[in-house]
Amino acid sequence: MDLNKNNEKPWEDTAAGGQSPVDVPPVAAGAAGASGAQRSVLDDLTASVKQVDRNVILRLLKNPLEGMKLSSSTDFGYGVVGIAAAVVGFLVWVLFMGSAMNSMLFGMFGFGGGFGGFADLMETKRSVSAAIFGRMFLISLISAASFLAALWFIGLWRGGRRLSIKQFITQIGAMQFVVGAGFVAAGLIALMSIKLSFLVVTVTLLSTLVLSVIAASDMFQIAKERLASFVIFSVAAYLLLVSLLSSIVM
């Protein structure tokens, strides 16, 4: 029996007299690659957001369809910031609308109940406001994600052009700056007139829906004979996704 074989170290390279590198387990290598990819995406996103130009945003506010001229390679930040602006604008409107409705209710019914009753009422108001704000935040995220997903998938299905998700977010997202501005304006108007505020929000949402569908039909090169079905399926898919995700999350 050759005892030297049993004493050989598995990491020694007997032919070269050196030490071979240790193999990295596939799972660890995959995890490292995924982590590196995530860092790369975040770095690219951060760099794109830092390059956002105020003058370009002003042009997008004046004419949202200017977003169709943007390129994902250099203007991706406008799409991301535009979507974020729409969500933040909606939350601003919720805050102002809640304040206006609270003022109206307090004016109608008064405080009542002395100091203790007033303190209890204010505590209840804060708890209810926090719960409503959190729910509205979820609704805004669900609505934005459903809207983008509906246009994206229906566009791929009915369109004649394959569009990357990054290019799609860049162009459609950049058109949402006007949505954020509309929500903020509606919030300020709510302090004077709740009815008028709801009217401004309705006009903002309908206008955005129409403009986004028009832009998406052009981006995906929807044929004229498929345009009607694209519009119908996009709106139906959006409403279905909002209803489904809301029932799951909320």
TrEMBL record:
Compositionally biased tracts (Basic and acidic residues): 1-12
Record flagged with keyword Ribosomal protein: no
Stretches the record annotates as Disordered: 1-22
Keyword Transmembrane assigned: yes
Signal peptide residues on this chain, from the entry's feature table: none
Keywords attached to this entry: Membrane, Transmembrane, Transmembrane helix
Transmembrane segments: 76-96, 103-122, 128-156, 168-190, 196-215, 227-249
Protein name: Yip1 domain-containing protein
Organism: Paenibacillus eucommiae
